[in-house]
Automatic annotation (TrEMBL):
Cofactor requirement: Zn(2+)
Family designation: Belongs to the metallo-dependent hydrolases superfamily. Hydantoinase/dihydropyrimidinase family.
Protein name: dihydropyrimidinase
Record carries keyword Metal-binding: yes
Organism encoding this protein: Phoenix dactylifera
The EC number(s) this enzyme carries: 3.5.2.2
Amidohydrolase-related domain segment(s): 116-502
Post-translational modification: Carbamylation allows a single lysine to coordinate two divalent metal cations.
Length: 552
């Protein structure tokens, strides 16, 4: 892929080089930043120019030494309950949640009267600095996480892609990428081939590396796609390890045929992307994955549910009692496919992702399914490519790198679309943006809750303020934004990550390397009772039947 082959990266511009040289700080600080830049291949200096970014070099700058915080008088919201209370934080941990907490002078006070105090968002689905379709996603663990924090997300789970099928090599590569992290993160691992070595490495990932979920791509034929034989082996292995199997559910052979059909028809633009992979292919693969998971009797997590077809398969399975989790993503919930027909290529191409953003109607149906518990949590699939990268497919939609942004916009857009509209309650908002993710991936209540002992990952949202998304001022490195121009009610005014105020008054206050890797242990709650279902299955077999030897 591009990075491995040493292809020039699109963000290495002369403007950026100039900005590196123009940092005006004391010599010691310059030296520190230089060392940092050497250890972090992409430019942090551009982040000094990022809107509201305070390039801190030590804990004492920008107020980082303040580790005692009292959030006063807000409505504290958890997935199970909300109440007006104060929240006291010390050394990164929530120490107390109750009304009228008294503190000394050394405590920073944040007045949250009339505002909501909620767990920071957890995004279950991101691709930072991922090598994909001949290029690399433009947001790395610095810019992607900076964007996340500015939008109220304090943890994300990224997908490690194996290197030439090797899980360990993939993990090493992602550990390196994550050295510049500014907030907590975890990893899922993709499985792209199958042999004994992969099976052994899966065990190693779970038992020694804190990874408790594996993703199988049923599409991207010729690169990441797995066949049913591999999927069944993978499901079995996941079950034996107490790890959650995740699927990208699209029929990859069908997609290849659909692409050929479009090219034969002379349809080569971005609209050909959506036309080549219709909802029926997503519905089919979702059903197939669900049936195979049922056959193996292991929980299943369907990522980026984009269509009514896929959602209805999940609804049917859940109604029958199967453990299937459905993750819609912000783009599928709030956009429709109309932009793909825009006459301007750059505009149309920025909406290309897989499965595709669907026709109007799918968005509303997915919102409704989310409000009724048919779908359980919201991700972003943040996978950004700038307009130069998208232009790789100018005359052939099959070469447009697939992916859209969302890590910075998720919390605001879901608040506006789901809560302000009255479709869900504030407690449900916390559940679908944070708590359910923490529960599924077995990190609750350390994450996903405002409880004594939980990590101090907290947002303060002002329901009376409003937000506006703009590519010109967002924190992603991309020059485009699929939500550009959208406005709505509700604004994340403060983000606290690991007990530090990292976003306040429109200013980011972050330190590269301060983000921590969060280990996720196996056997999350979705595995409770799986062995009982196995026992019931074995008892139901009435086999093997003992038969007398046939007479000679
Ligand atoms: O278009 C997408 N979704 N790009 C990221 C890779 C994936 O399939 O999740
Ligand atoms: Zn996918
Ligand atoms: Zn993805």
């Amino acid at each position: 892929m591009a990075g491995e082959l040493g292809v020039d990266l699109p963000w290495q511009t002369s403007r950026e080089t100039k900005s590196i040289l123009s940092i005006s700080r004391s010599f010691v600080l310059d030296l520190f930043l230089l060392l940092l830049l050497l250890s972090i291949p992409r430019s942090i200096s551009e982040l000094n120019q990022m809107q509201g970014y305070c390039a801190v070099a030590s804990d004492s700058e920008c107020g980082w030494s303040l580790t005692k915080i009292l959030i006063k008088g807000g409505t504290v919201v958890n997935a199970h309950h909300k109440e007006v209370a104060d929240v006291y934080i010390e050394d990164g941990i929530i120490v107390s949640v109750r009304p009228n907490i008294k503190v000394g002078d050394d405590v920073k006070i944040l007045d949250a009267t009339g505002k909501y105090v909620m767990p920071g968002g957890i995004d279950p689905h991101t691709h930072l600095e991922m090598e994909f379709m001949g290029t690399v996603t433009i947001d790395d663990f610095f810019t992607g996480q900076a964007a996340a924090l500015a939008g109220g997300t304090t943890m994300h789970i990224d997908f490690v892609i194996p290197v030439k099928g090797s899980l360990s090599a993939g993990l090493e590569s992602y550990k390196n990428k994550a050295k510049k992290a500014v907030m907590d993160y975890g990893f899922h691992m993709a499985i792209t081939k199958w042999d004994e070595e992969v099976a052994k490495e899966m065990e190693l990932m779970v038992k020694e590396n804190g990874i408790n979920s594996f993703k199988f791509f049923m599409a991207y034929k010729g690169s990441l796609m797995v066949n049913d034989e591999l999927l069944i082996q993978g499901l079995k292995k996941c079950k034996s390890l107490g790890a959650l199997a995740m699927v990208h559910a699209e029929n990859g052979d069908g997609v290849a045929e659909g692409q050929k059909r479009m090219i034969d028809l002379g349809i080569r633009g971005p609209e050909g992307h959506a036309l080549s992979r219709p909802p029926v292919l997503e519905g089919e693969a979702t059903a197939r994955a669900i049936h195979l998971a049922s056959f193996v009797n292991t929980p299943l997590y369907v990522v980026h549910v984009m269509s009514i077809d896929a959602m209805e398969e999940i609804a049917k399975a859940r109604k029958a009692g199967q453990r299937v989790t459905g993750e819609p993503v912000v783009s599928g919930l709030v956009l429709d496919d109309s932009w793909l027909w825009d006459p301007d290529f750059t505009t149309a191409a920025k909406y290309v992702m897989s499965p595709p953003i669907r026709k109007a109607g799918h968005d509303k149906a997915l919102q409704s399914a989310l409000s009724r518990g048919i779908l359980q949590l919201v991700g972003t699939d943040h996978c950004t490519f700038n307009s130069t990268q998208k232009a790789f497919g100018f005359d052939d939609f099959r070469k447009i790198p697939n992916g859209v942004n969302g890590i910075e916009e998720r919390m605001h857009l879901i608040w506006d679309t789901m809560v302000v509209s009255g479709q869900i309650s504030v407690t449900d908002y916390v559940r679908i943006t944070s708590t359910e993710c923490a529960r599924i991936f077995n990190i609750y209540p350390r994450k996903g809750a405002i409880l004594e002992g939980s990590d101090a990952d907290i947002i303060i949202l002002n329901p009376n303020a409003s937000f506006k998304v703009a590519a010109a001022s967002h924190h992603s490195r991309s020059d485009t934004n699929v939500y550009d121009g959208r406005t709505g009610k509700g604004k994340v005014e403060v983000t606290i990550s690991g007990g530090r105020i990292v976003w306040e008054d429109g200013t980011l206050n972050i330190v590269p390397g301060s983000g921590r890797y969060v280990r996720m242990e196996p056997y999350g709650y979705l595995f409770d009772g799986v062995e009982k279902a196995d026992a019931a299955y074995l008892a139901s077999l009435r086999a093997p039947v003992l038969r007398a030897q046939a007479a000679a």
